[in-house]
């Protein structure tokens, strides 16, 4: 799953502090004591290049490669989006270009194929801490594509007050569905074995009984008033809608949460995104400023014939 990626070209590569510094930089144990930075972004041992025409900072966090892209004209408060997995997949079809054009920063940390496991969450926490200390907003828009849904929802449910909006695209919301393949989907034996190893499950029975899949941990997000928007292909036989997004939608509504689902009739797991992702961009821009405990909990369901 998710083998297809969109290539990009680095038009410039400018060392800042040298390659050796990039390789050696990691989470600073004194970071928590450092004051929040203002003005231009800067990270220890960073390298600068271009990503889809925008300035990108590449650096290391907690032993992982990471990067942040700067918009041409940042919005006040430096709002940002964070793609937790597959940041190069179908980029033009996602809301990322529209958010960058609107003044959002965009970020990613590479934690590998770790399925939103506890080890991944620790890396995510270090990344969030570094970026907010560097001056980015305390609340972030999360983007979870495919298995990235596990990453996004797992971090969000542990940090609901730090999340502005969740955009999930054909997201895995229950590991029993994928990679477990215990429903109508194809599943993936190799990924199921890898996920069990990442989570430290003693056996398959423990994995199947795991109580903290995204479908099980929505209450903190609803309480915090986090708006959700999902984009799904109704013919997806890898991450079936009925076993993933449909359950999220039903349960989030019951909790009083706000969710919009955009359906793509006849479309499978790929391609992700939409021919015109403007509806998702508009949803994020419309809801991001109002996310939080005081936001309104209304529910809308839209169908996009994409």
How would you describe the overall organization of this protein?
- There is one protein chain.
- The protein is globular and about 50 Å long.
- The two termini are 22 Å apart.
- It has one domain: 3-Layer(aba) Sandwich (Rossmann fold), CATH 3.40.50.
- Strand 2 and strand 3 form a beta hairpin.
- The protein has an 11-stranded mixed β-sheet with strand order 1-2-3-4-6-5-7-8-9-10-11, sandwiched between helices.
- The protein has 9 helices and 11 strands.
- With 306 residues, it is an alpha/beta fold.
Keywords, separated by commas or semicolons:
alpha/beta; Rossmann fold; 9 helices
Strand content: 15-25%
Cα-to-Cα separation, first versus last residue? 22 Å
Instruction: Provide the spatial order of strands within the biggest beta sheet.
Output: 1-2-3-4-6-5-7-8-9-10-11
Tell me the quaternary state. single chain
Structural domains: how many: 1
Q: Biggest sheet, in brief?
A: 11 strands, mixed
Helix content: 25-40%
> What is the N-to-C succession of helices and strands?
EHEEEEHEHEHEHHHEHEHE
* Tally of strands: 11
- Count of helical stretches: 9
Helix/sheet category: alpha/beta
Low-pLDDT sequence parts: 1-38, 290-306
SSE inventory with pairings:
Elements: E1 13-15, H1 19-24, E2 47-51, E3 54-61, E4 64-69, E5 80-83, H2 96-102, E6 105-109, H3 118-133, E7 140-145, H4 148-158, E8 163-169, H5 189-199, H6 204-208, H7 219-224, E9 228-233, H8 245-254, E10 259-264, H9 278-287, E11 302-303
Parallel strand pairs: 5-6, 5-7, 7-8, 8-9, 9-10, 10-11
Antiparallel strand pairs: 1-2, 2-3, 3-4, 4-6
């Amino acid at each position: 799953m998710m083998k297809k990626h969109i290539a990009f070209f680095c038009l410039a590569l400018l060392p800042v502090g040298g390659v050796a510094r990039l390789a050696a930089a990691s989470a600073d144990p004194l970071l928590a004591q450092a004051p929040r930075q203002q003005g231009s972004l800067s990270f220890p041992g960073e390298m600068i290049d271009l990503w889809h025409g925008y300035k990108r900072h590449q650096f290391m966090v907690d032993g992982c490669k990471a990067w942040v892209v700067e918009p041409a004209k940042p919005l006040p408060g430096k709002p940002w989006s964070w793609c937790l997995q597959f940041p190069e997949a179908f980029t033009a079809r996602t809301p990322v270009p529209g958010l960058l054009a609107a003044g959002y920063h965009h970020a990613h940390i590479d934690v590998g194929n770790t399925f939103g496991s506890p080890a991944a969450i620790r890396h995510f926490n270090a990344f969030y801490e570094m970026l907010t200390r560097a001056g980015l907003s305390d609340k972030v828009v999360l983007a979870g594509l495919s298995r990235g849904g596990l990453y996004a929802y797992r971090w969000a449910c542990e940090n609901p007050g730090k999340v502005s909006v969740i955009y999930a695209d054909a997201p895995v919301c229950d590991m029993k569905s994928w990679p477990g393949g215990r429903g109508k989907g194809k599943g993936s034996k190799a990924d199921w074995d890898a996920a069990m190893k990442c989570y430290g499950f003693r056996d398959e029975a423990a994995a199947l009984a795991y109580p903290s899949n995204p479908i099980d941990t929505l209450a903190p997000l609803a309480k915090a008033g986090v708006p959700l928007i999902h984009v799904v292909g109704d013919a997806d036989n890898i991450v079936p809608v009925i076993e993933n997004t449909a359950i999220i939608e039903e349960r989030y509504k019951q909790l009083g949460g706000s969710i919009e689902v955009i359906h793509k009739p006849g479309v499978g797991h790929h391609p992700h995104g939409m021919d015109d992702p403007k509806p998702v961009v508009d949803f994020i821009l419309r809801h991001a400023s109002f996310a939080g405990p005081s936001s309104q909990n209304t529910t809308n369901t839209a169908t996009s014939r994409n």
